[in-house]
């Protein structure tokens, strides 16, 4: 790995770097690294490395395709979401009957799915469709266990 940055997010340290094995930029959670070998090789970081949004639209440090997502919240969750800064580019719009619509960007949807599920029945994914389907599938699987 050619290391570019260390980032602390949500209680964990991450290494952002170029993975030679996968041939792509990746995130590595530091506490999951099993072995480290210091090599005497040198590398030149990409010229635009400081302009890349490694975590500006990351949701939980997941990397992948960029998505714009929108979630509606009710009840105590609406109040909590209205009062909380989850992401620097989030947009919160008041809706009918004390609801709020939360919009932000994320690279990948797995972390967003877990976040939405943490609000239980007081959240509904409005878009994108793949995220809505992912949350619905997780709810079906959980319902099958009860």
pLDDT < 50 runs, ≥5 residues: none
Helix proportion: 10-25%
Q: What topology, given as strand order, has the largest sheet?
A: 5-6-4-7
- Oligomeric status: single chain
Ends apart, CA distance between termini: 44 Å
Q: Could you explain how this protein is built, in words?
A:
With 146 residues, the chain is of the alpha+beta class. Strands 5-6-4-7 form a 4-stranded antiparallel sheet. It is 23% helix and 32% strand. It has helices spanning 75-83, 110-117, 129-145; strands at 2-9, 12-19, 24-29, 66-73, 91-94, 100-107, 123-127.
Q: What is the element layout, followed by pairings?
A:
Elements: E1 2-9, E2 12-19, E3 24-29, E4 66-73, H1 75-83, E5 91-94, E6 100-107, H2 110-117, E7 123-127, H3 129-145
Antiparallel strand pairs: 1-2, 2-3, 4-6, 4-7, 5-6
In short:
This protein is α+β, with helices and mostly antiparallel strands and 146 residues long. The protein has helices at 75-83, 110-117, 129-145, and strands at residues 2-9, 12-19, 24-29, 66-73, 91-94, 100-107, 123-127.
Question: What distinguishing features does this structure have?
Answer:
146 residues; four-stranded antiparallel sheet; three-stranded antiparallel sheet; 3 helices
